[in-house]
Specification:
Number of helices: 6
Largest sheet: 7 strands, mixed
CATH architecture: 4-Layer Sandwich
Strand order of the largest sheet: 1-2-3-4-5-6-7
Bound molecules: zinc ion
CATH topology: Metallo-beta-lactamase, Chain A
Number of domains: 1
Shape: globular
């Protein structure tokens, strides 16, 4: 198997915003991490799979690594919380706090993934799973069977209406259930920027197929449609504008018949 020591790809989206991804992770599990640089503190939104150490990469992007750093887990799916344990300040919605404190064990080997999930992913439009969730190793001799999700008990909770304040940047917490029950997004009103996490991105949106979660998801999408959003940075796939967001939302509402 390939060895790719440059595990994370980093891309500056604007003077105070970085995108971090893991290109050697299967597209379903290759999530976006966003680093927002603030005056008094920096904010990391999600922390990837936890295959390779993330902290050094994040600190390398920060003008002052001594400044406080907040790690917000937008929800507790494996591809968003893998490195949460590397950060001292860990925020999550209360509904998913137990999962962050004691994550469901996960393997990089995909043979344990149920038929139901495989079908869900394929039907959503994703390519078939690989034998492993990664197609390269982060270092020679990396033991894929030693992979584990480490406990990262939250040091604080975030709920609807809370504000994450970086001194000169404030993000309002939106509770956006549907993809997962405790899913949160962040809205930066000043620029109309939404960090939509897995509530909305420009790729196949996933829910568990239950009528309840579809209804919740539809309500979340309708709510986003009515917000003064100009730009969306999602939990997966490239960023997009309001027109594309509306198109995505309309498409799903139609497809779900809600
Ligand atoms: Zn995700
Ligand atoms: Zn997710």
């Amino acid at each position: 198997m390939d060895v790719d020591p440059h595990w994370f790809r980093t891309q500056q989206l604007d003077p105070r915003l970085w995108l971090i991804t893991e290109p050697r992770v299967h597209p379903i599990f290759c999530a976006n991490m966003h680093l927002v640089l603030g005056r008094d503190a920096d904010l990391l939104i999600d922390s990837g799979m936890g295959v390779a150490p993330l902290r050094p990469v994040v600190d390398g992007l920060r003008p002052d690594p001594a400044r406080p750093l907040i790690c917000l887990s937008t929800h507790t799916h494996v591809d968003h919380i893998g490195s949460a344990h590397e950060f001292e300040t860990r925020l999550v919605h209360p509904v998913e706090a137990d999962e962050l404190a004691a994550p469901t064990p996960y393997s990089l080997r995909t043979d344990g993934i149920s038929e139901a999930f495989r079908t869900l992913f394929l039907d959503a439009g994703y390519p078939p799973l690989w034998p492993l969730l990664i197609d390269a190793l982060p270092s020679a001799g990396y033991d894929v069977d030693a992979y584990q999700l480490r406990p990262a008990p939250a040091t604080g909770m975030v709920q609807e209406g809370d504000v994450i304040d970086l001194g000169d940047w404030q993000g309002e917490v939106l509770h956006l259930p549907g993809h997962s029950p405790g899913q949160v997004g962040l809205f930066h009103a000043e620029t109309g920027t939404l960090f939509g996490a897995d509530a909305i991105y420009d790729g196949p949106l996933l829910h568990d197929g239950e009528a309840d979660s579809i209804a919740e998801y539809a309500a979340t999408l309708r709510r986003l449609r009515d917000l003064p959003i100009r730009r969306v940075h999602g939990g997966h796939d490239p960023s997009f504008d309001k027109a594309r967001m509306d198109e995505i939302i309309e498409g799903y509402l139609r497809a779900w018949g809600v």
